[in-house]
Amino acid sequence: MNAADRLSLVFAALADATRREILSRLAEGPATVGEVAAPFEMSAPAISQHLKVLERAGLVTRTVHAQWRTLSLQTEPLDEASAWVEKQRDEWNLRLDALEEHLEGLKKNEAKKQ
């Protein structure tokens, strides 16, 4: 999977409020599927679908110990998404600065003509 595809999966996973709440819970530490599902009023299959989306995006890993399945947050995909957003912000700030400079130049030229 290339980086762009992974970013698409991460942003798609983050687009849902339930999945963001699950990630917030896992930011506190690893948890079982039951612990993660407890605060939500939705079916176990619905929670399972949300977890699959998070796992596919690389945001959550699942380990199995005996009959327990423990979920853990993986922060690397979030770091990559954050870096992408910061890069976009930096590029737009440079463009806006250049536009501001251009507009100031136009204002000065208009003032000289009058």
TrEMBL record:
Pfam family, one: HTH_5
Every HTH arsR-type domain range: 1-93
GO MF annotations in UniProt: DNA-binding transcription factor activity
NCBIfam families: HTH_metalloreg
Protein name (Swiss-Prot/TrEMBL): Winged helix-turn-helix transcriptional regulator
Naturally occurring in which organism (per UniProt): Leucobacter denitrificans
